[in-house]
Amino acid sequence: MSIVAKRCGVRFIPPSIILIYENKNTSKTRKRVIPVRNFSQYSDCSRAAERLKHHVRHSVYLESVSLAQLERLHLILRDHLKGLSLEESLAARRASDPSDEDLNKLSDEELNRRKAQMDQLFERNRKHKDDPDFVYDLEVEFPENSVRETCSWDEEPSDEGF
Question: Which residue range(s) make up the domain with 87?
Answer without folding.
Answer: 3-95
